[in-house]
Specification:
- The complex is a heterodimer of chains A (about 80) and B (about 220).
- Chain A has about 80 residues and is of the alpha+beta class.
- Chain A contains 2 helices and 3 strands.
- In chain A, strands 2-1-3 form a 3-stranded antiparallel β-sheet, covered by helices on one side.
- Chain A is elongated.
- By secondary structure, chain B is an alpha/beta fold.
- Chain B has one domain: Class I glutamine amidotransferase (GATase) domain (Rossmann fold).
- Chain B has 5 helices and 11 strands; from the N terminus they run βαββαβαββββαβββα.
- In chain B, strand 3, helix 2 and strand 4 form a beta-alpha-beta unit.
- Chain B is globular.
- The chains are: A alpha+beta (about 80), B alpha/beta (about 220).
C-alpha cells in the first residue's frame, strides 16, 4: 500500500511561493487563476496492509515529522 | 563558565560561536549530535547556525530527532540556559522548545547582510547588558527566517515580555527584511531560559569586520 501525503501551508499563512507562481502565471497571460498555493507531496511505500492501521501510523508520522502543524496542514490518501 | 555548542551534520557556525565565546573568556566544548548527554558543567548550551541535515523537509525538522536533543530538552526543562542562533532557532521551534515557526522569507531570496535590530525586552539574561530600544548592528544570513506565530500566540509573547528583538533601520524604526510577524527577530520562552534569534551575534565580534555589537549580546550569558 502507498500513502500519499500532501502538506501545505494553512489557510491564513502567507504562501510567498504560491504568490510568486501566481505572478508568473499572470505574466504568461494565464488568466482566471484566483489563487495559487504551493505544497509538497510525500509518497510512502508501506508494508502495512490494514488501511485503518496504516492511516493511524501515517497520521502519527505527519504529526511528529512530516508536517509542522504550527504552519502546515496535511492530507493523507491511501492507495 | 562553560559553553557547550551543538554540532549536527550541516552545522557551519560552531567554530565562529566557539571563537566568539572564547574571545569573551569562556571555556567551550563542541558536542556532536550523536552524543546522548551534554557536559554536566554546562552553563549555556548553544544550538549553532548552519544547515542541519541540509534543511531537508523543513529547516530544523530532522535535527530535532538527533540523539542529543533528548538531553537538550531535559537540560532546558530543568532551567538550563539554551541559545539557538539561526538554524539553532529553527531547531528549537521545531522541537517545541520555543513557540512559533520559521518559514521561507517572504521575498523568497536567501538574505545575507548586516541588519539593525532593536532591543524590545532586556529583562532577561541574554540582553541585560543592553537597554530597551538600543539598536544593534548584527548580520543576518537565512532563507527561512520569516517568523510566524498565530494571533493568540503573539499576544502571549507580548504579555510575557518574550519578544526580545525586532528588525529595524538604524534609527530603530521597523524595517522587515523577511516577512516576520511584527518584524520579530528573536524571542524567548515564558521561563526566560531558552532564547532564539535569526541574526548572528557571533559574527559581530570585531569592529574591523563591520560590527562588534555581538559582544554586548553574548556577554549577558557570561555574568550568570
Amino acid at each position: 500500500m502507498k500513502a500519499i501525503v500532501n502538506v501545505s501551508l494553512k489557510a491564513g499563512v502567507l504562501d510567498s511561493q504560491g504568490k510568486a507562481v501566481h505572478h508568473a502565471l499572470d505574466s504568461l497571460h494565464f488568466k482566471g487563476v484566483s489563487d495559487v498555493r504551493v505544497g509538497k507531496q510525500i509518497i510512502l511505500k508501506l508494508d502495512e496492509t490494514d488501511k485503518t492501521k496504516a492511516m493511524a501510523e501515517v497520521t502519527k508520522m505527519c504529526e511528529d515529522l512530516l508536517a509542522n502543524t504550527v504552519i502546515e496542514d496535511y492530507e493523507i490518501e491511501l492507495v | 563558565m562553560k559553553i557547550t555548542i551543538l554540532q549536527f551534520p550541516g552545522t557551519n557556525c560552531e567554530y565562529d560561536t566557539q571563537h566568539a565565546f572564547e574571545k569573551l573568556g569562556a571555556q567551550t566544548e563542541i558536542v556532536w549530535h550523536k552524543s546522548e548527554s551534554i557536559p554536566s558543567d554546562t552553563n549555556l548550551l548553544v544550538v549553532a547556525g548552519g544547515f542541519s541535515y541540509g534543511d531537508y523537509l523543513r529547516s530544523g525538522a530532522i535535527a530535532k530527532f538527533s540523539p542529543v536533543m533528548k538531553a537538550v530538552t531535559e537540560y532546558a526543562n530543568k532551567g538550563g540556559k539554551v541559545l539557538g542562533i539561526c538554524n539553532g532557532f529553527q531547531v528549537l521551534t521545531e522541537a517545541g522548545l520555543l513557540p512559533g515557526a520559521l518559514m521561507r522569507n517572504d521575498g523568497l531570496h536567501f538574505i545575507s547582510k548586516h541588519h539593525h535590530l532593536k532591543v524590545v525586552n532586556n529583562d532577561n539574561i541574554f540582553l541585560e547588558k543592553l537597554n530597551n530600544n538600543d539598536v544593534v548592528n548584527i548580520p543576518i544570513a537565512h532563507h527561512d527566517g520569516n517568523y510566524f506565530i498565530d494571533q493568540d500566540g503573539l499576544k502571549d509573547l507580548y504579555a510575557n515580555n518574550q519578544v526580545l528583538l525586532k528588525y529595524t533601520d538604524e534609527k530603530g524604526e521597523d524595517k522587515n527584511p523577511n516577512g516576520s510577524v511584527d518584524s520579530i527577530a528573536g524571542i524567548c520562552n515564558k521561563e526566560k531560559n531558552i532564547f532564539g534569534l535569526m541574526p548572528h551575534p557571533e559574527r559581530a565580534m570585531e569592529s574591523i569586520l563591520g560590527s562588534d555589537d555581538g559582544i554586548k549580546m553574548l556577554q549577558g550569558f557570561l555574568t550568570a
